[in-house]
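Structure ticket #2291
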Amino acid sequence: MPTSIAIVEADLENAQHQRDVLALTAAYALDPMGNGGPLPPEVLGRLIAGLETHPTTLILMAYREGKPVAIATCFRGFSTFYAQPLLNIHDFSVLPEHRGQGIGRQLLRAVEQRARQTGCCRVTLEVQEGNAAARHVYESIGFGPAVCGEGTGGSLFYIKPL
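Resolution: structure written out below.
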């Protein structure tokens, strides 16, 4: 019988939640679909304070038997085309040994529920083109490429490092 999953909103003043956010973020960074390598100690050292002071931070974590197994680090944004807030999933990760068990879907549904509760018009995320497993999970619950109008094609996510 599968164990139950608890989804909690991170309280960044809670020392245990701080440790769990750091551990899950560090694990995600190691994944080839994340950063592909470890985060520098100085980044990890600044992370919690930065998240705490960023006014739109929302972090949900999934726990199995009291241990953190997945994270969704989100930031609230604004849709000018709807004149409503939106919620962007910036980082989303399930620890490798817990993948394929429905935890990601549960966490995504919790993010969607929180977005609805706070009046958001949409939830957005980015996914690596080659990450077929994640794309399958996202598409299975209703995510898809952003298309603004017929014939315009899907949106591409670009970055310019500064």
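Closing remark: The chain has a mean pLDDT of 93.
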